[in-house]
Write a structure and sequence with these properties.
Length: 517
Amino acid sequence: MRRWLLLLLMLAASPAAAQSVVTSVAPDAVAVSVFRDPGRSEGGEIEPGWLNGFALISETRTIDLPAGESVVRFEGVAEGMIAVSAIVTGLPGGVVQKNRDAALLSPASLLDGSLGNRVHIRRTDRATGRVSEEEAIIRSGPQGAVVLQTAAGFESLRCTGLPESIVYAGVPAGLTAKPTLSVTTRSPVAQRAAVTLTYLATGFDWASNYVARVAADGRTLDLFAWLTVANSNAESFADARLAAIAGTLNKVSDFKALADVPQSPPLRLSCFPLGTGRYGTPPPPPAPPPMMMSVDEASDIVVTGSRVARYEFMSAPIAVMASQEDLGDLKLYRVPIPVTVAANGQKQVALLVKDRVPFKTIYRLRSSPDDRFESMETERVLRMENKEAARLGVPLPSGQLAVFAPRGDESLLVGEGSVRDHAVGEKVDLVIGESSQVRVDIVKGGAPKMADDDYRVTVTNANPFAVDFELGFYVDPDPKLDKRLRKLPRRDGLLTWAIRVPANDSRSFDYRFVEPE
């Protein structure tokens, strides 16, 4: 008997029985490196609320560890944390196991965790302001009517017509107010440790946003770009070391599926039929307040008004700008100062400033040789050379572009487009819209001296100035191709007819094309 008592005392004193919990509320420092959504097309926009990019988050924390086995809780990790990616370094005894504590505290989870337990129901009398409390037992969960059992019988929550709330004695086990990663470790002695927690998290994305202002002479432009970082997690990362990685990764894991955690059901409240509640029929809800219209909304519906997109360029030097580094074949843009990546928000930092970049405006169309159409509009393209000699010569990450031109004392929007990733040395063609002033006709046969397989392209310029026009043909290599087509130079892999069209004039090009058998 004495032997069994001694064994029980030894088990009670074992590290497993005396396991302590150490909570790290927040990191001392954090670094956030954001990767673009690999599935988003080049030049595609960030979609708020639907961010499919991800981030590598590295946190440093100072933890006081007791001797023996303990559970270390890292609170405030990203909601989209991919727990299987988490790496913890700096623990003297290493990591025995890790768990993602996903049951977050909410009205529904709090009520669900208290099912069958005693709580207090608190009510306020509308007439006297008197507050009363009584004991109740929760008899149903958060879906549907929340039924309480009191000394007077059964009733539904918030169906009495009186302001009421539930007062809980404590938080049910297993619920946490913040997303938490917990790890089990063993320390040989009590000590303070500097620990680094690194993990991947979903719910991030970033993109470039370019703004170009065309000079008055129409030959150069000033190019400015923002680095826009978005975070759809409910957690903020204060004073973070922020970086953005450009390039396309070969992502094979479904990060979103790995990050998904069970969600607590929403709290839905419904009442018994009217007149059957303990306090009779609840009063009707108050009338909605009168609709207020903001100044911006009002200006949108003024028929005689007009709204013009504008952008004020910075006249002073920019003090903070992301610096570019190489990361293998990728490009890393590092923000030189600590910034806060706010929850459910966006952060913008200057990415690029280039002044007086020379460019040409090209009017362009691409088609197959056997296409036929009348008065087809052409694309307007701004063409630059991404070289230092052309006042550019930097990697251009993909994003959106807005182009402004001077009109008196204002800068007015003249076109929008998208920018794909461009390396140094590449030609940069930015499509900013379509032109109704430069049009193309392609007709087949029917004209004098034209055979049935003959085609005629006519480009017409209605502008009061000469324009450069290019028509690119999608043609497979074919030795039987008409020599007039074969002699055309190739640009971007297409046989291209390039011509300068005078003001208020037109130019034509004839060729023969026979459908291959």
